[in-house]
Specification:
With about 350 residues, the chain is an alpha+beta fold. It is about 25% helix and about 30% strand. About 40% of the residues are buried. The chain binds flavin-adenine dinucleotide and uridine-diphosphate-2(N-acetylglucosaminyl) butyric acid. The site of uridine-diphosphate-2(N-acetylglucosaminyl) butyric acid has 18 residues, from strand 13 and helix 8. The site of flavin-adenine dinucleotide has 34 residues, from strand 3, strand 8, strand 12 and strand 13.
């Protein structure tokens, strides 16, 4: 069958950045999105459940996957430009960071703060990737997907995607949609966002006083490389926990007791707290249990020092959640999707 490749009992070890040794009953790598209906019809007969997977940089496998992992390996970028802005349709299998660098090279603005985030374009809307004060949602006009429930191609506009902090319709209805392309609307000019977490200071160190988007991108690359462990060196999935959003009373009580706790006020009166600070203050930063650990560079990052299994990593994550709950009364939530058997 053309347009895709099927592998039985496929190893997922090199397909997740936490480097967990899990397997899928079947893995389908798709190079032609128009073949999805035919493939899914075939799979429905063979195996019930389907898991879309990109580069595996935001998943934790706690067991083998008893179904079909669908990897969108489609490529392609289509641009409609009107001079001041462009509508850009990007195939799900394109690498996110390559796309960001391409937009900067073409003179488009907006994605500079989101440089160096691992993963595919198709996965970017799933958790509404964000960094350095920006979220991808701001630039997503619509998402094209295969709706496995209705068995048809759907175009979901921005509002329907229901984006939130590390959240979207896709995250709330796991397995329903297989994203085939994302349509972005990017301007040539827009105000730069440089006031977040050290960007201005880094631009000053670079000697830049009138920054262009590519200067901001260079500053963000510098900050990210310094702060976050590289999955090519040590297995990890970036932040393993979301920054918790708590009500004003709890935030105020915690701030009174711990004035150094970083907290960001939200539009609805609640506060987003720094999970990294809470985890570090609860004594977990740098902890290692066997090969499962909490990074000594950044307390939000769960790391695999070598041969940690999914259940071992998940047990350590749960220990951290229980410790933070006990010390601060705050419930942490994992950011990656935890996939069991
Ligand atoms: P995967 O991990 O393969 O999948 C993630 C989820 O998306 C799964 O639920 C999967 O089923 C679903 N999915 C994947 N592809 C599709 C598709 N085509 N259709 C439907 N569903 C799909 N994230 C941030 O937001 N900000 C950061 O700053 C950031 N920094 C990171 C740094 C490091 C070092 C690492 C390892 C990760 C970081 N992440 C960050 C997390 C990760 O990069 C993003 O979540 C990214 O979008 C995941 O892409 P992926 O292709 O690897 O998706
Ligand atoms: N901090 C600690 N201990 C640490 C690390 C950080 O106390 O070990 C404190 C810092 O002092 C700072 C605060 O935590 O005051 C925030 O740290 P940072 O700027 O690193 O941001 P973060 O909130 O930890 C979030 C995202 C990252 C994103 C960065 C930059 C979440 C869950 N994480 O991290 O996203 O890159 O901001 O914008 O929202 C990801 O989602 O995988 C990810 C890496």
């Amino acid at each position: 069958m053309g347009g895709y490749t099927l592998i039985e009992h496929a190893s997922l070890a090199s397909r997740n950045t936490l480097r967990v040794d899990a397997r899928a009953r079947l893995l389908a790598e798709i190079r032609d999105a128009s073949k999805l209906p035919e493939l899914l019809e075939f799979l429905a007969i063979r195996n019930g459940c389907v898991l879309p997977l990109g580069e595996g940089s935001n998943v934790l496998f706690t067991g083998d996957f008893d179904g079909t992992v669908v990897v969108m390996a489609t490529r392609g970028v289509q641009v409609e430009s009107d001079g001041d802005s462009a509508r850009i349709a990007v195939a799900a299998g394109e690498r996110w960071d390559d796309f960001v660098r391409w937009t900067l090279g073409q003179g488009y603005a907006g994605l500079e703060n989101l440089i160096l985030i691992p993963g595919t374009v198709g996965a970017a809307p799933i958790q509404n990737i964000g960094a350095y004060g920006c979220e991808v949602a701001e630039f997503v006009e619509s998402v094209e997907a295969w709706d496995t429930r209705e068995q048809r191609v759907v175009i979901l506009d921005h509002a329907t995607c229901a984006f939130g902090y590390r959240d979207s319709l896709f995250k709330r209805e796991p397995g329903r949609y297989i994203v085939t392309a994302v349509r972005f609307l990017l301007p040539r000019n827009r105000p730069l966002r440089t006031d977040y977490a050290g960007i201005d200071e880094q631009l000053a160190r670079m000697g830049v006083d009138k920054p262009a988007p590519f200067h901001v991108a260079e500053a963000v690359v510098h900050l990210r490389t310094k702060k976050l462990p590289d999955p090519a060196v040590i297995g990890n999935a970036g932040s393993f926990f979301k920054n918790p959003i708590v009500d004003a009373a709890l935030a105020e009580a915690l701030k009174r007791e711990h004035p150094e706790l970083a907290a960001w006020p939200q539009a609805d009166g609640r506060s987003k707290l720094s999970a990294a600070w809470l985890i570090e203050a609860a004594g977990f930063k740098g902890l290692r249990e066997g090969d499962a650990g909490i990074s000594n560079r950044h307390a939000l990052v769960l790391v695999n020092h070598g041969n940690a299994t999914g259940p071992q990593l998940w047990a350590l994550a749960q220990k951290v959640m229980a410790g933070v709950r006990k010390k601060f009364g705050v419930q942490l939530e994992p950011e990656p999707v935890v996939i069991g058997s």
